[in-house]
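Weekly modeling sync, notes
Attendees: AB, CL, MP (scribe)

Item 1: holo prediction request
CL wants a bound-state model with FE3-S4 cluster before deciding which constructs to order. AB pointed out that an apo prediction alone won't tell us much about the pocket. Agreed to run with the ligand included and paste results into these notes for async review.

Input as submitted:
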Amino acid sequence: MTKKLYISTYGCQMNVYDSARMADILSPLGYSLTPTPDHADMAILNTCHIREKASEKTFSELGRLRNKRRVKMEAGGGEMTIAVAGCVAQAEGAEIMKRAPYVNMVFGPQSYHKLPEMLAEAARGSGQILETDFPVEPKFDHLPDEAIDTNLSAFLTVQEGCDKFCAFCVVPYTRGAEFSRSTTEIINEAKRMIAGGTREITLLGQNVNAYHGLGTDDQSHSLAELISQLSELDGLERLRYTTSHPLEMTEELCQAHRDIDILMPYLHLPVQAGSDKILEAMNRRHTGDEYRRIIEKLRTYRPDLALSGDFIVGFPGETEQDFEDTMQLIRDVNYAQAYSFKYSPRPGTPAAAQEAQMIPEEVKSERLARLQALLNEQQLAYNRSFEGKTVPVLLEREGKREGQLIGRSPYMQSVYVQSPTHRIGRVADVIIDEGNANSLRGTLKSSSSENAA
Ligand code: SAH
Ligand code: SF4
Ligand code: F3S
C-alpha cells in the first residue's frame, strides 16, 4: 500500500538535496511524495536556522501540521507522523520536543539515513524520538543508489559542514565539521543522475571550494580536479558549484573557469561586508581588497563571469563609514545578482554576545534598503545589457503562459521564451528581447537546430 509523504523544505540548496534523499530513503517503505500535507501519512519539516525569521517558521508550520493531522484523523484518515529535520532540529531538538510534544521525531541533517529505524521505533510506540548526534559514519554511506526522480537541473552535495566559524553563523554548529565525499561516490551519483535525464549539475557544499575528497588513487582531490573529471561525463551539459568562500578560490579553480567549457560562467562568492574592520570582526579572514583581487583575476580568466554575493548589514559595531565601504565594494565589483540580509543574532555564536555593539533595527532596515537599491540597479543594468544578444538557454519547464518555456542562461538568469514543449531538456539559442529586473524574455533563434543537444 502506498503511503503519502509530505516534505516542506526551508533554507539552502543543501536542504533541497537532503529532502530529495529523504524521499529516496522512504520510497522502498512505500512512501510517495504528495504536494500538500492534507492527507499525508508522514509530514517532514526540513528546517533552517540561519536567521531568526527562518527559524521561527518552524513552530508556526508545526502548529499548522498539527491541525491538518487532527482534521485527517477526525475524517477517519488515520495517523500522521510529524517529523522535524534540518538545522533547527539540530540546534533546538530538545526545545522542539518540549514546545511541541505532538511531534513524533526530531533529527538533524546528518542523521536522516536512520529514518527507517526511527519509523520502526515510532511504530513500536516508543514516544518521541530525538536523533541529533553527529554519526561517525557519514550519512552518504547509507543513502540508496536509486533516486526516485531526477531533474534536468539537479543538486549534488559533495561537501558538507564548515570549519570557518564566521562570528555570525550557525552552520558550523548545525552541520558539523567539514567533510568531503569521495570522487568515486560523486561521479557514480552524477552518472546515475545523467542516466535519469539530468543535464545540469550544481555541486553543493557549505564551503564547496574547500572540497578535498579522496580519489581512487587514495589521494585527496580539489574541487577543480573534481570538476575536470565530471566534465568528461557524456551527456552532462552544464556544471555549477555553490557556495564558495573567498579564501579557497585557488588559482587552479580560477583557471577552471577559463579551461572547462561546461563550467558555467557564474560564481556565487559571498563577501558579507566591505569594511576590513567588520570583515575581521566577522572572522572572514580576508580584506576587501583581497576579495577585489580575486574577482579581478577571475575576470581576466573569464571576462563574462557573472558574480553573485551575500551581504549582511548591521553587523555589531557597523558604523555608517563601514556600511559605505560595503557600498563601495559593491560598486567596484558590479554584481549580476546578490542576496542581502539584516544581521540576525543567533544563539551560541560569538557575534550574538556583543550586545553593547548591536545596531538598532531601524538603522539596519534603512541600510538594507539602500544596499538593495544599489544591487537591484546593478542587476537590472546587467539584465538589460543582454538585449539583442543571443544566449544558449537550457530549457527546463513550461511557464504559466500558453506555449511558454522557462530556462536558464549560463549566467543563472531565468529566461522566458515561446517554444514547443518537445524542446524541454535541450540547450537552445535565444535572442534576448527584454532584460527585466528578475528575468530575461527572448525568442528562439530559428537557426537553432532541432537536434541540438
Ligand atoms: N557557506 C556560505 C553561506 C551560508 S549561510 C558562505 O560562507 O558564504 C548563507 C548566507 O546567510 C550567508 O552568506 C550570510 O550572508 C547569511 N547569514 C548567515 N548568518 C547570518 C546571520 N546571523 N544574520 C544574517 N545573515 C546571515
Ligand atoms: Fe557560515 Fe562562514 Fe561557514 Fe559560510 S563560511 S557556512 S558563513 S561559518
Ligand atoms: Fe539554513 Fe542549515 Fe542551510 S541553517 S542555510 S538549512 S545549512
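Recorded for review: The two ends are 40 Å apart (CA to CA).
Action items: CL to compare against the apo run; MP to circulate these notes.
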